[in-house]
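Reminder to self: C-alpha cells first, then the designed residues, so the page reads top to bottom the way the pipeline ran.
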C-alpha cells in the first residue's frame, strides 16, 4: 500500500513548492522530512551554548582583547592540555565499563536464577587455558 507519490513519480508542475494551500507536492518536504527538526535542534543547542558563554564574557574587562584573554585563561600556562591524555581517558573508560559490567553481573547473580558469575568464571578459565 503506497501512502503517497514517490518523488520519482512527480511531474515538474507538482514538484514546485506548495504555497498558499496549493495541492502540489512539496518535493523538499517529501525528500528531506526531518531536516527542519534537526536544524531546529542544532540551532537550539547553539543558542544554549552561546547563552552559557555570555556570563563568562561579562567577566572579561573591556580593555583586554579577546585574543589576549583566551591566551591568558583558556589554556594552562605550562602548555599542557586542560584534559587528561588519550591513554589515561581510555584506561579510565575500560575500568568504568568493567566495574559497571561486574556490578550488573553481581546483581543478576543475586536477584535472578542465572548463574552469571559462574558463566564468566568458566569463560575466563577457558580463555586463560586452565
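Designed residues (130 positions):
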Amino acid at each position: 500500500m503506497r501512502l503517497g507519490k514517490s518523488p520519482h513519480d512527480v511531474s515538474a508542475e507538482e514538484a514546485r513548492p506548495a504555497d498558499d494551500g496549493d495541492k502540489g507536492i512539496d518535493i523538499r518536504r517529501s525528500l528531506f522530512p526531518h531536516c527542519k527538526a534537526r536544524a531546529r535542534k542544532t540551532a537550539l543547542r547553539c543558542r544554549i551554548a552561546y547563552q552559557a558563554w555570555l556570563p563568562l564574557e561579562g567577566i572579561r574587562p573591556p580593555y583586554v582583547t579577546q585574543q589576549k584573554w583566551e591566551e591568558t585563561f583558556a589554556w594552562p600556562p605550562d602548555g599542557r592540555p586542560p584534559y587528561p591524555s588519550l591513554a589515561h581517558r581510555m584506561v579510565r573508560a575500560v575500568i568504568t565499563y568493567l566495574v559497571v559490567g561486574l556490578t550488573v553481573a553481581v546483581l543478576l547473580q543475586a536477584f535472578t536464577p542465572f548463574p552469571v558469575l559462574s558463566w564468566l568464571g568458566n569463560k575466563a578459565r577457558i580463555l586463560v587455558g586452565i
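The mean pLDDT is 76.
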